[in-house]
Amino acid sequence: MRSENAVIRLITILVFAAMLLYIIFALLSSALNPLKTEAVSATVIEDSVDISGYIVRDETVLAGDADYIITVSSGDKVSVDQTIAVKYGDEAAIERIAKMQELSNTISQLETNIAGKNSYQEVAVESVISFSEAVSSGNMADIDSAVSGIETHIMNAYGDYDQQEQTLADLKSQLAELESSSASDASYMKSTYSGIFALTSDGYENIRFSDLENITPSALTALFTGKEAGPNAIGKIVTGLTWKYAVILDNAVAERLSEGSSYEIVFESSFGKSLKMTVDSIGLTENDKCVVIFSSNKYISDTVTLREAEGKILFSTTTGLCIPKDAVYYDDDGTPYVYILVGLQARRADIEITSELEDCYIADPSSSSLLRIGSEVIVKAKDLYDGKVVQ
Asked: pLDDT tens across 289-301, in order?
């Protein structure tokens, strides 16, 4: 018995010692040959330049006193002779105008009802037929539904239309009398142009496209300084679809542009749109800067209230994989590569670096079949080689 206990005790000690040795070995291996990985992520690199400039359009100021009430909204399209503002004579005039509007609404409703007389009668006849069919089938649910339909449609179809027509005639007579007596109750401002209305005015509406020709940066700044809206300005009308965007750029940026070419301009903060704009001209150099004039005929309604706008020229975007710089090695010939953890092994993958950020390189996703979003690149390990078991 004592011999068996001694054997069990010895086995227990040996198992404990083996476990302790394994733990010590694992800790020493981790300390002497640490393994650290990071997951590959996708990123988008923009080649862009932030810009700020002035918007110029063909626009005409509308003048009127403060008593005018604007009847259109900024961005609305208006036509020649369309009413855009109204001024009432006094409180009694306002009451007459309101009464006229009420009469017009009632007349419209009556005309609709009377016009639907024939169609109501047709529906009423169909309801009677449906009732007859329901009685023949003996279906009580269908009978109840048909009876309800007959009550509704008969009343609509054979209501007192003579009385309604007389009421309609009386209301039209009242409206005509009010219109005759209120001829001088209000004065109306009508548009003399066809275009887009804007409620704002800033005093720069008289700047024309021709004023931007061969303009220097200092002249552009002066052109948009010191003006304000006139005392009688109540809005403006923008005519034409073309608008121009005058921007002061460093010569180094302007050299990347070509007259006649189009570039993506992003106005995210100004009016939330991105569009292609054409470079009309690249101006004269002044202190290593010049004025570039962009133009477009899109989104004019979104810009009618803007004079200054911030945006960016988006030259290109590149999608790539973000590789930690500590994970990149180089061959003698300069070829960059990484080790990727595949199962228990470190596998080599050559990469093509397209750009560089502060803490990572951007690699072409097609560099290697092993390299993809979520791949574990080895950032820290000792004595790596292709196929080495590291876990």
From this structure: 999 999 999 999 8
